[in-house]
Design goal:
By secondary structure, the chain is an alpha/beta fold. It has 15 helices and 19 strands. Helix 2 packs parallel to helix 3, helix 4 runs parallel beside helix 6 and helix 7 runs parallel beside helix 8. The N and C termini lie close together (12 Å).
């Protein structure tokens, strides 16, 4: 573990490639993006995944790096849903035929800020304009302190059977520092209610490296999580970027040092493994029998802006402020300001403010970085390697190989067990845009 600490550098999380700071918005056009949208539609057999960003929260969680709007005024729900439905109609006009919905995910913000009847209106309006794939999946993110039985029942009746609760930490002192309050009893009750209603998969998001955390407090949180036995656990490293999120400055003196943060990571891995969970990709643990394990075994595990999924989607449509759409050959991000988002939609325009159209080299490295993030290995044709190898970071690759973290040659690369903890750093060796950049955007540290 000590030797790996030198790799604890600011690097991307690689939810996409190229990462957003290295997009080329100056050469992006809506027309070019719409062309990739239609190509992806046919390549995915008319199936689309839909991410819906619901940005409202009643209070600010100071650790959070998401695009949120803090308000206690629930009158904002209706107009926002109206514009989401109009945005969906604008996308439907761009698609050649009626799409098949493969996946819907509600993210935030706090989706359960919205009243159940408003969520029903939103989702019914989305679904009625399309058809559902035979193997559709629907999931949402819920705050344990405000997700009600009615939320769970309403969404389950619409087809939702997966829910992710943001736990972060059970320690009261940590919760006060990050302004995220929910008790163990609340989490236990809402988890049990979800299972009673018929949800087949409950995920907990847990964060290590938060202010006020200690070895003892982290161990206690891990023990409580294992006691509730969620089907999935996402165990994330806290991203400290105060220049981008000023609220994080309020507790900098309470942050754990680097040695403790590495120990927290190890504690989680040990606790989950001993409890019978299996590691999938980066930061994720699942119980035996989970479909993500089967997907990994079959080489079908995929990762996009919504996280890991058991199937590859070539077309992801993001609805709502700041959402990112992915047509595999291009990215497009929505306006982040709600009034401006409304204005664009009312003009009959897709509310896109920037994007990126992939080059041939982008697609090559995107594929192989994705393979590493999902399967910890990738292979390529030697001719492809010869065409793009000039962009590889050979200094880093050779160093990683000498230290027993990876093995690579002209036909592929494999991340060895010792290298999995620094997978984000390993991926930078295949990040052609990062290696040739004349600027260094701010990322969180690898651990």
């Amino acid at each position: 573990m000590q030797d790996l600490k030198k790799y604890n550098q600011p690097v991307p999380r690689y939810t996409s490639y190229p990462t957003v700071p290295f997009w080329e918005p100056e050469s992006f056009t809506i027309k070019a993006y719409e062309k990739t949208l239609q190509s992806a539609y046919w390549e995915s057999s008319k199936e689309v995944s839909i991410y819906i960003h619901l940005p409202f929260c009643e209070s600010l969680c100071t650790y959070c790096a998401c695009n949120t709007r803090i308000t206690k005024n629930h009158q904002v729900e209706g107009p926002y849903i109206d514009h989401l439905l109009k945005e969906w109609e604008l996308y439907l006009e761009k698609l050649p035929e009626k799409p098949l919905i493969r996946e819907i995910h509600l993210g935030g913000g706090t989706p359960t800020f919205f009243a159940p009847e408003n969520l029903n209106r939103l989702l019914s309006g989305i679904i009625e304009k399309a058809s559902l794939s035979k193997e559709f999946q629907m999931s949402f993110e819920g705050h344990p302190a405000n997700t009600t039985s009615k939320h769970l029942e309403t969404l389950h009746e619409l087809g939702f059977d997966r829910v992710s609760f943001g736990i972060q930490d059970f320690d009261l002192d940590v919760q006060k520092l990050i302004n995220r309050m929910q008790s163990f009893e609340q989490v236990k009750a809402i988890t049990e209610k979800a299972r009673e209603i018929g949800y087949t998969s409950v995920n907990y998001d847990v964060v290590y490296g938060l202010p006020g955390q200690t070895i003892e407090s982290v161990q206690n949180t891990l023990n409580q999580i294992i006691q509730l036995r969620p089907e999935r656990i996402a165990y994330y490293s806290y991203a400290h970027v105060p220049s981008m999120r000023p609220a994080q400055k309020s507790y900098e003196q309470h942050l754990p040092d680097e040695d403790n943060k590495w120990r927290f990571m190890q504690l989680g891995k040990e606790a989950f493994t001993q409890a019978g969970y299996q590691e999938v990709g980066m930061d994720h643990y699942v119980l035996p029998g989970d479909e993500l394990l089967e997907a990994r075994k079959n080489g079908e595990l995929h990762r996009n802006f919504m996280g890991y999924t058991p199937f590859t989607s070539k077309l992801l449509i993001g609805l709502g402020v700041s959402s990112i759409s992915d047509s595999w050959s291009g990215f497009a991000q929505n306006e982040k300001n709600i009034p401006k988002y409304y204005e664009q939609i009312e003009r009959g325009e897709l509310p896109i403010i920037k994007g990126h159209i992939h080059t041939k080299q982008d697609l090559f490295f995107r594929k192989h970085i994705l393979n590493l993030m999902c399967d910890f290995e990738t292979t390529w044709h030697e001719s492809e390697f010869m065409e793009h190898c000039v962009a590889l970071n050979y200094k880093l690759l050779d160093q990683l190989q000498e230290e027993g973290l990876i093995s690579y040659n002209e036909i592929g690369m494999k991340v060895l067990p010792a290298g999995r903890e620094v997978i984000r750093v390993i991926c930078t060796a295949l990040d052609a845009r990062m290696s040739k950049a004349d600027r260094e955007p701010q990322f969180s540290k690898a651990v």
